[in-house]
Amino acid sequence: MCILQVKHLYKKIGKKEILKDVSFTLDKGDIMAFIGPNGAGKTTTIKCILGLQKIRSGEILINGYDIRKDFVLAISKVGAIVENPDFYMYLSGFDNLKLQARMYRNVDDSDISRVVELVGLEGRIHDSVSKYSLGMRQRLGIAATLLSTPNLLVLDEPTNGLDPDGIKDLRVLLKRLAKSGVAILISSHNLSELESFCNRVCILSDGKILEEASIKEVKEMDENKYLLKVDDSSKCKKYLKEFDKVVDKNHIEVVRDEEEIAIFIKELVLNDVLLYEVSKYEMSLEEAFMKSRGIES
Amino acid sequence: MIRLMHNELVKLVKKKSFYIVTFIFVLFCVLTNVVYKMPLEGEIVSVDIEALKEENEALDLNNSEDLLAFVDHLTTIKLEELKNEYSSNVQEYLIDHFMYNTIYQMYESEYILKDQELSLELQSEVQEQEEHVKDEDSTYFLDERIHYLEARAQDTEGLEQARYQRLLELANIRKENNVSYDSSNYLHNSLEFLEENTVEYMNLLSDDDLTSDEEKRLEFLKEEMSIHEYVIEHKIDLLNEHTLRAVLMNFSGEFGLFILIYTIMIAGSIVSEEYSRGTIKSLLTKPFRRRTILTSKLFVVLLSIPLIMIFMSAIEIIIGGFILGFDSLSVPVVLYQNGVLESYSVLGYLFGLLFTSLPMYLIIGVFAFMLSVVTTSTSAAITVSFLFYLLLNVISNLALVYDFWVFKASASLYWDFSYLVTGTTQTFGANISTSILVLFIYIFVMLCIAYVIFGKKDVKNI
């Protein structure tokens, strides 16, 4: 089931076109990595989705409701952190959650303790937020988004300030939420952190969508690349093709599909090259992203 | 909506700035009450006796002008010497008011008339008076005065007679109520006011051809005298300035600035602070329309103004009560309205004053609220709102002098309704319905701007 549909989004700020024909969809259980360099329009897109900024043209549907025409219905099942987890610093974490809880029907104190427990802030929840670290504020922010049991989570850079444990916890939490049917949109520039638990990726650059696909697809878009450890790289030179290269004395890098690599290995072995190791490059999301940028430039 | 307003109140009440202003207000409140408690020292004109004596030595007693000055100085010296010796309230009053003539006549007979016999007679009279002053014997002087006034009232006729009769009446009231000449006694003060102003009042009253200044003076005397008469008739200390009641009656004057500070602080930050904190994003992604969110904030601002007034009054009553005592709260406020005296309870009067000053704070509050939305900058909203208030006040002062149509559009000409309570007239001559209409237009326009802008504003990067 389609939870979020973004269709042909255009947005102009001043004379600058910030978003150009941005479209993507998010289904139940999807975790989408929304990535792109600084200034690509990630946060602007998120703000448009949440109705914080007006769009010039295009359409955004959340749970089937147009964010512009049926704002209240569209937003009611959305939990969001935009830019930073912002709180009333002079209030305690609990009071902040209480303020947010009051803005929903059917959210009470038991929901507050539930989400506090989910993000592991039980010990410090009654301290004033001004005493929280950025990581703790991030946790509190995530807790706040979960108060109303949303089916769409929009998280802008949620890993900012989290320690490795916090990131791990978040990963586990988000995976669990996705399993229960929540669609999650995460923007980040820290791509390697998202890779391990996102199943979709949307790459935005200069206001345009470059790739919108599943993680597997993105990675498979590249040709297969292999790294081989040999006794002496120079002996292999004559067998290399256009895109292959010598990495160092013992390593070469070649681009072959599955059929070709088998033949290549055989060729090396038959020509007295000692072959110690063959490994296939797993292209990281980051590389996929860089590659998309490369194509663009 | 109620939930949103609840949230806004929580945010407001827990804010640090609220406590800081309240702390300063409490301090200010204590100081104000202490100032009220302190006795108002009249100007003490200390006479340099030695200097007068020296001056006298230099005078040429053959010169008639010098001679008059000589006698005058002698009289002053004698009065001062007596006052140095007898320095209680009553004694000083008696010396100043009853002995001056006798002493002057005594020196006059000795140096100008050169009548030895008369001089001796007056000398013994002065000594006799001095004895009575020593005993603080108000009755003696009062009886003398009654005696004198009775004689005058019989000897004169017409207006003059009426004046003496009125003074005699006052003297008899003093006697009946046994009011000594003690300036710390409020009955004495009221009687003294009446005694001092009766002649002028009756003269003005009988004059058919008054200038406008004289008419104003007459109106003033009429009002003041009727209040002093009320004091004497009801034996209520209405004019005591050293009471909690007096502070409360001047509440707007003493603490109005704080109401303004609270109002502008709340209204000027309620929207813009959400922007500067970034919490606006969380607020606007909740299932409420933007106008609902803005309305809840507006209602909290509007509600907070009277709440702040009640809060401040309560603090003042508690602090003032401890410093000045609570008993004055039972003394009514008596106002001269349309030629008659009306009496109100102190708290009722305070409530009336605060209620009629609400429109002004409302205009300033809505202005600050609008700026808070438009600029999303708390400091800009607060500063400009104060400037707006000052500007409108300057305009209303100018409007008193210059009849310029632009000035007529200033809200400050219409926002003061306190005349309805104090029984005076509207300073700028506007009637109630015009005032309400003008203020309504102001509020309507400012709110339209606020709602349109808040509804359309993109939340920029914070």
Describe, in short, the structure shown.
The complex is a heterodimer of chains A (297) and B (462). By secondary structure, chain A is of the alpha/beta class.
Helix vs. strand class of chain B = mainly alpha
Strand order of the largest sheet of chain B: 1-2
Largest interface: A-B, 31 and 25 residues
| Helix percentage range of chain B | over 70%
Query: Major sheet of chain A: size, sense and barrel closure?
Result: 6 strands, mixed
Task: Let me know the average pLDDT of chain B.
Answer: 86
Shape of chain A: elongated
Biggest β-sheet description of chain B: 2 strands, antiparallel
Range of helix content of chain A: 25-40%
Distance between the termini of chain A: 36 Å
Order of helices and strands of chain B: HHHHHHHHHHHHHHHEEHHHHH
Order of the strands making up the biggest sheet of chain A: 6-7-8-3-9-10
Number of helices of chain B: 20
Radius of gyration of chain A: 24 Å
Overall radius of gyration of chain B? 31 Å
Count of distinct strands of chain B = 2
Which characteristics define this entry?
heterodimer, A: 297 residues, alpha/beta, six-stranded mixed beta sheet, four-stranded antiparallel beta sheet, 10 helices, 33% helix, elongated, B: mainly alpha
